[in-house]
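We close this part of the discussion by returning to an individual protein. Part of our work consisted of pairing the sequence of a single chain with a tokenised description of its backbone. What the numbers capture is local backbone geometry rather than side-chain detail. The amino acid sequence and the backbone structure tokens for this protein are reproduced below.
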Amino acid sequence: MPKKIDHEERKEHILKAALEVFAQEGYTNSNLSLIAEKAGISRPTVYQYFHDKTEIYYYAVKLITGRMFVHYSSIAWDESRGDEVDRIHAIFDDIIATAVDNESSLLNLVSVIISAQKEGVDFAEVIHKRTAKLSILFKRLIRQGIDRGTIVSEDIDKASTRLLTIAQMICFQIAFFSSFSVEQAQDIASLAIDSLRS
């Protein structure tokens, strides 16, 4: 009886190998043959799942951010977690924990962005589109908090942008600086989030 293949699991396996190849070889010097070799599968098998390396990168961003936003939405609207400020804290705690648990993958992803940018490929638009959902989630929580009196009245767009920027900065520092601790990340996030509380 033929072995049943979990296609999503295989795509993620290819993705993990691709991120390692991108980080080692640079985005331009990477190709599907190197990715297939790293994944321990044939190149035609990689082609069954992805047309090219750009599609692999887009899939990586989509997969990672998609899973995060589903999870963060469940936190955002779970009133048992406290008021809006408490729920923003919970989202940041999860962002930090996820970044720490996936430090090497995060480093590979950021390395790909830097390598690709040096080579004239800009993934900024993709990243911006995929993180827009988190920004919208922050905006909704802030607006709800202002309406309920748990958050100070301020420019919702600016407050959301500030939170998103801090989340991105924390992830970057966790990926690149071994001296950057979880406690530092939590302190930075707490200062920004607590400034929202009315």
